Amino acid sequence: MNLTTASRTFQLLNRIMDVRVSTEPFLPPVPEKPAIPLEAARQPFPRVTPESQGISSRHIRNFLEELERGRDLYTQDVMILRSGKVVCEAAFGAQDLRAAKYTFSACKSVVSLAIGLLVDDGALSVQDELADIFDGDGSASLRRRLKGMTVEDLLTMRSGVLFTEAEALTETDWTRRFLSDSLKGEPGAEFAYSSLNTYMLSAVVCRRAGKSLTEFLRERLFDPMGITDIHWETCPKGIEKGGWGLYIRAEDLAKLGQLVMDGGLWQGRRLLSREYLAAALTAHAQPPAETGDFNYGYQIWVGRHENTFLFNGMLGQNVLGFLDTGIIVLTHAGADTDFQESRYFEIVSRYFGGAFPARLPEDAAAQEELSARIRALSAYSRETEPAGAAAAPFLNRSFTVRDRRAASAGLLPLALQALYNCYTAGVSSVAVSIKGGLPELIYREADALYRFPVGLGRPAVTRLDFHGNVFHAAALGRFTCDEEDRPVFRIRLEFIETPCVRIIKLVLDGDRLLLRQTETPGIPYISGKLCQAAQSPLYRPLLLVAAGGTEEDFLIFRTQQILSPELICEESGR
């Protein structure tokens, strides 16, 4: 990190940490998230019974039930395929399999496929050096420093460049910054995971293909495979982020996993060479043991002890392929994980890591039990409930927030605010009304008004526009009382295209209202990241000043202040 970047990073962190004022964006905010329709995938896989593919319906039902019991897994959806056929698909709670889901690092594997297409075309070699690809982007001294850094070094996370995702939040020219950044050792020597390596692969595709990563993939993979409504976020210079920021439906992501499983064939048509995929699924680097039980190929994880491949993203996006049996298990989640440290991998390996016959006798009773379990997992299978008398204390009342911490609290989860450089101007009032038989939350910020229905029993889905960033959100509420017998309106607002959830509690406390907010992934995950950063000599000075300390208990306390505020509100007009 150079001094300029350190200063910028400190300023942004300091603004986020100060709960008394609204966070001022460091870079001008630009809308990045368009509205993406909730629609089924085109060119869908065939749907068949599990038994026709040699898997017991009861076996799959037990798997789903174990995921459901694992509250720490925060499973959102599951899709299981064998031999290119879907044997199970399930959405948990308010999730919707039709949604184009946000991928963090799982889309790194998609970038690898684009590199493979260029290699197949003869337009690129993995041994090509960055100094040649980006000739003219730097001085002679930069070319000398980058000499020997290859495309393969980027593919295997061994570039040695220190430029990180956090630093990119305050930079406008990521390519220039990467090419001019400090090196940790020799290129190709040491595995050091960084999404900016993948970003540079995206930039390589732009250079060698003469078009954007999305355009290139649309022509070569997406259109032939019926993959639609793709949105890939870009850097300030308009290059796809590569290592994160791809919105893609679960079934469409599964198609790309199936392409890898089938050695580059799609419905009998060759789209990618078997030779490139063989190299991509070869272990080129061994990450630290704490990341999980996988080695690293070309932006695709490779099982150390099982013949598997994995597209993997933080918080729980996984496309896990068992090469010996042709089984693919795709899941999305909102868990507090970065790599494969979750016990999810032990569970899925236990259920699907063994041998399976080609087919089993059909079992209608077990199939119906599985279908019933899948229906029960979805909150949309439930009936809408009436508001009832418990809603009366909240209805048609408006409350003004009288708390200095209100300036930093907003409806959009802070994780998404930081991701989209779209910070709240602060909550000013909340109100509850009835519309169409459902409670409606009216949430006013200093520069925006949000109003949406809250389902009772069954979620209500709405679209929320945060300064041009449009999200589908599912709201599910219930009226209850707390341990002090105070009326409570609890709302769970799931941003169903992302792993993020906003929890809102309105608590009536005499003549005032307490507005309590939190989010997931939340305090354990973020405070853990801060505590980890506090051990780094690079970031410790920043946290010391911005947070006011680096002790673990103190960082957890500061995280609670930011992510879980309790704001005092007074009834408007009093």
Keywords:
single chain, 574 residues, alpha+beta, eleven-stranded mixed β-sheet, seven-stranded antiparallel β-sheet, 18 helices, 23 strands
Descriptive report:
- By secondary structure, the chain is an alpha+beta fold.
- Helices cover 30% and strands 24% of the residues.
- The chain has 18 helices and 23 strands.
- The strands form four sheets. Strands 13, 14, 15, 16, 17, 18, 19, 20, 21, 22 and 23 form an eleven-stranded mixed beta sheet that branches. Strands 2-1-12-11-10-9-8 form a seven-stranded antiparallel beta sheet, sandwiched between helices.
- α2 (57-69) packs parallel to α14.
- The termini are far apart.
Tell me the radius of gyration. Answer: 24 Å
DSSP helix fraction: 25-40%
Mean pLDDT: 91
Counting DSSP H or I runs of 4 or more residues, the number of helices is 18
* Approximate shape: globular
- Helix and strand content put the structural class at alpha+beta
Q: What's the total number of strands?
A: 23
Taking pLDDT < 50 over at least 5 consecutive residues as the criterion, the unreliable ranges are none
Main beta sheet strand tally, sense and closure: 11 strands, mixed
Alpha carbon gap, first and last residue: 52 Å
How is this fold's topology laid out?
Blueprint: H1 3-17, H2 57-69, E1 75-82, E2 85-91, E3 100-103, H3 108-121, H4 130-133, H5 140-146, H6 151-155, H7 165-168, H8 174-180, H9 195-209, H10 213-222, E4 231-232, E5 246-249, H11 250-261, E6 265-266, E7 269-270, H12 274-280, E8 294-296, E9 301-303, E10 308-313, E11 317-322, E12 327-333, H13 344-352, H14 364-377, E13 397-401, H15 414-420, E14 427-435, E15 438-445, E16 448-453, E17 455-456, E18 460-466, E19 469-481, E20 487-495, E21 501-509, E22 512-520, H16 523-534, H17 540-546, H18 552-563, E23 566-571
Helix pairs in contact: 1-17, 2-13, 2-14, 3-9, 16-18
